[in-house]
Specification:
Blueprint lengths: L4 E9 L9 E8 L5 E5 L1 E2 L13 H21 L6 E2 L4
Antiparallel strand pairs: 1-2, 2-3, 4-5
């Protein structure tokens, strides 16, 4: 049986250290459920992306911003230079 999801919002961030490019993430809600999930279009090696379900859009948004802050920290302190795009098949 398919799982239906509603796209709630797409967020972007740019001007990361080292000109790492633009980051994009989306917040989805599974239809019939009261949880929101984050989906990232690119990740940074060594920085775990949040994969929990969140009770509100605001909680999911905060998780995305915290992840991007951790990515910025990796760019500044760990020698990481760019995002790695996630390929969907």
């Amino acid at each position: 049986m398919p799982i239906y999801r509603e796209l709630v919002v797409t967020l972007t961030a740019n001007e990361f250290t080292n000109g790492a490019g633009e980051a994009t993430a989306s917040i989805f809600k599974e239809c019939g459920q009261n949880l929101y999930h984050c989906e990232f279009h690119a990740t940074v090696r060594g920085v775990p992306a949040p994969d929990a379900g969140y009770d509100s859009v605001d909680d999911a948004r905060k998780a995305i911003f915290q992840y991007w802050d951790a990515c910025e920290n990796a760019f500044r302190n760990n020698g990481v230079t760019s995002f790695q795009r996630i390929l969907k098949v």
